[in-house]
Amino acid sequence: MNQGWTERRRPIRLERRLEFADYETTRDFLDRAASLSERVGIYPDMSFGRTYVNITLHAEDDATEVGEPVRHFAREIDALLETEKTLDE
User: From edge to edge, which strands make up the β-sheet containing 45-49?
Assistant: First the structure.
């Protein structure tokens, strides 16, 4: 798991804050994250501003830990960020 994710216990969840250079880059990331959510059926809590996005991935109901589907989704978000770096280069 990317060290950018923080695991919290109450409630059980993963959190990450992402910083972007400008609004256009932030908006592009949000659009790609929305497509990912539609594809895999996981819908994180997201808040954002002009140059940042906060993401919270909650564990499934009654889970005692963050499960593999949520961890996989976090890795997919990380992959979107790698794609972003590639697009900028």
Answer: 6-9, 12-19, 52-58, 45-49
The residue type found at 30 is: L
First-residue to last-residue Cα distance in the chain: 24
Query: At 88, is the secondary structure helix, strand, or coil?
Result: helix
Across 1-89, the runs of DSSP E, i.e. the strands, are 6-9, 12-19, 45-49, 52-58
CA of 9: how far to CAs of 1, 12, 47, 64, in Å?
17, 4, 20, 9
Reported as a single tens digit per residue, the pLDDT across 43-73 is: 999 999 999 999 999 998 888 899 999 999 9
